[in-house]
Specification:
The complex is a heterodimer of chains A (704) and B (54). With 704 residues, chain A is mostly helical. Chain A contains 32 helices and ten strands. In chain A, the strands form three sheets. In chain A, strands 2-3-1-4-5-7 form a six-stranded mixed beta sheet, sandwiched between helices. A two-stranded antiparallel ribbon of chain A has the order 6-8. Chain B has one domain. Chain B starts with a helix and ends with a helix. Classes of the chains: A mainly alpha (704), B mainly alpha (54).
Chain lengths: 704, 54
Amino acid sequence: MSERGSKSHTIVLLGNPNTGKTTLFNALTGMRLRTGNYPGVTVEKKVGALLGATGIDVLDLPGTYSLAARSPDEMVAVDVLAGRQEGAPVPDAAVVVVDASNLERNLYLVSQVMETGLPVVLALNMSDLAERRSIEVDADVLRQQLGIPVVPLVARSGTGVDELRTEMIAAIGASPPQPGWSWPPEIALAEASLAAAAPDYPAFELRRALLDQGGEAEHRFGNVEALAAAREQAGGPIALQVMEAEVRYGYIGDVVAAAVTRPPTPRVTRTERIDAILTHKVWGTGLLVLVGYFVFMSIFQWAAPVMDFVEATFALVGEQVEAASFLGDGALKSLLVDGVITGVGGVVVFLPQILVLFGFIAVLEDCGYMARAAFLMDRLLRWCGLSGRSFIPLLSSFACAVPGIMATRTIESHRDRLVTILVAPLMTCSARIPIYVILTAAFVPATMVLGFVNLQALVFASLYFLGIVVAVLVAWALRRTKFRGEPTPFLMELPPYKMPSPNIVVQRMLRQATHFLSRAGTLILASSLVIWALAYWPRADLTQSLTPEAPAVSAMTADQLQLQQSFLGRMGRTVEPAFAPMGWDWKVSIAVIASFPAREVVVSTLGVIYGLGEVDEESTALREQIREVTWDHGPRQGEPVLDLAGALALMVFFALCAQCAATLMTIGKETGSWGWPVFTFVYMTTLAYFGAAITAVVARAMLS
Amino acid sequence: MQIDDLVALGIVLAAAAWLARYFVRRIRRLTRSQETPSSKLMQITIQDEDKREG
C-alpha cells in the first residue's frame, strides 16, 4: 500500500478525525482502504495515484485536530507537510478535508496548514449533512475570505470529487496562500530570538516548537534553554497558547460570520434524539449488551447452514481423492486427504462465522454506533486507569491484535499507550473463533436458558467477556504498579448516525475473508503438511503388535498405533504430563504446543491427527471426531479425552494465551524493546496455564 | 521408499522451508526496523514522564 512509484508530484490529504478523508481518498484514487465512522481509522500514511491524472500521488494522513502534535500519529502529519517524513517527498500541495456542518473547529487546522508554505485546497465535505441541518455554507464567500480554492462535495456519493481533482491538479505549482491574520509582536519577537538560536531550523516547525508546550515539536527541537528563554520573552507558555487561540479563532469567527448561515434556533437533530437513549448510562449499557449478544447468537444461527455446506464439500472432495486409484495407497494420498484437505478444510469451514462477525462490526462502525460504544466503555476503562481512547485499538484487536496495537499510536499518553499494547492481545481475535466454535458446538448443548438465551451463544459471548475482564484487570494492575499516573481525559467526537454503506460493509467482509483464506492457504497449509509428516513418519511394522498375544495394543487400530509411534506421537507423549492438570491427552497437548506461532493452527493440527488416527470412520466433521476421541493409553484408556470441563479449559487457555508470533513481533516493533513482547508472552501464558487448570478442576467438580 | 513417499517428502520439505523462511523474514524485517520513530519517541517520553514525577 505504501509502495511508491516514480511519480513526480505528491498531494497530501489531511483533516480532522472523522471528516471522511479515507472515503475521499478512495474516491480520488480508486483504492479500497478501510474506512470507519469513528476517529482513528487511519494510523499510518497511505499512498495512491490520483485517478484522471498522471504522475500525481495522493497521501492520506491520520486525522488530526491541529498541527500542535501531541501523539506520534499527529506528528506524522507535521513531518509529511514539512517534507521530513522518511520515504515521502516534500509535498506539492495540501488538501484539507473539512466537515461542512462543523466549520469553526475544522478551520483551526486549515489556518495552521496555510502557514506551512504549501498551496492549499479546501474540500468542503459532508455538504449534504450541513444542508439537512439547515446550515448554508457559501463556498464562493469562503473562497474569497480564505484566499484558497474551496470545493463543496459529498465524498460518499462522489459528488464534487471531479471538481476537487481539477483543483488539486491546478494547485501544483500554485502560490501558497497568504494568511489573513497577523501575529502579535510578542510572538514575532520570540520567534526571531529562537531563530537566532537555531538558524537552520524550518520556520513553521520553529513556531510549533515555541507554541506547543510539552508537544512533539518541542521534543524534536531539543534546545530547551533557548525555548524557555523565548517563551518567557513572550509572557510564558500559557500566554502564548492563549494568543495563538485568540488570533486563529478571531480570524475564523470573521470567516464563518461571512460565509455560513445557520437556522435562528438550532434544531434537536435525529442524532441527538437517538443519543439520548444509546449513550444513556442504563439504557445505553443495556442495549450494548443486547447488541453484543445478538451478534454472537447470529454467528451460531446464521452461519451454521453455510458452515455445514462447506464442511460437506470438503468431505466430498476428501472422499473423491480417497477413491482415486491413480494415487495408490501410500504417503501421497494420505498427505492430500489427511494433511491438505483435513488440515486446511478444518479451518476454512469457519469462513461463514468470520463473515457474519465482521459484517456486523462493519455495520455497527459505519452507522456510527461504535463511537457510542467507546463513550459507554470510557467509564470502565477509566476505572482500570485507561481512557476511552484505548477503546478503538482494543476494538480493532477483536479482528486482529496487530492493527489494534498499531492503532494505539493515536493515544497521546505514552503510559496509556503501552498498557493498551500489553492488554490488546487478550481481546478475542478472529483466529480464536474456529476453536471456540468447534468446542462450543461439540460440547455445549444447544438449549435455551431462561427460555430465550441460547446457551452456545452465551458460552461464546462469555469467552469474549473473559478476554475483556482479564484485560481490564491486567491494565488495572499495571497502572497501579509499573505505570502509575493519572489517566488522561478522553475527548471524542460522536459522529452523526448514518445508514451503513453496503459497499463499505461488503469491502470489510471481503478484506477479512481474503486475510483469513490467505492464511489458510499459506501458513495453515504449510503447518498442516509439517504436522502430517511428523504424524506419518516413521512407519512402524505393525504386524507383530496387532496379534492376539499383545492385548494391550490390539484394542487400538493399526492407524492409532502408527500415530502413537510417529515423531509427533513421541513428542506428544513427552509433553503430555505438563498438561495433566487440564486432563488433555498427548494429541490435544501437541496441538496446543503447535499453535504457539499462530493459534488457528490448533484446529488444522487436530484435524490432521484425528484424520490419521481414524477416530471414527463414520464421522468426518472435526467437531464430531473431537467429541468421540478416547484415551489410547494409561489408566483412562477407552474414556473420552475431552468432556465439557476439558473443552472449557481448552477454550480458556486459548482465550488467555499469547499464541501469535506476529503480535509479539509487532509489540517489539511498536515499543522499541524486546522486553515487552517477552513480558507479554510470559504473563499471558502463565495466566492461560493456570486459568485452564483451575477451569478444568472447578468445572469437573461442579459437573460431577 | 516408494516413489509417492518421495514426492510427499519433497512437498513436506518445501513446506517446512517455506515456514522457516516466513518466520525468519518476519523476524529480520522487524529487527531491522525495530526502532520506529514512534517507539523511540515513546521510550523517551516515558523516561521524561518518570523524571517529571520523580
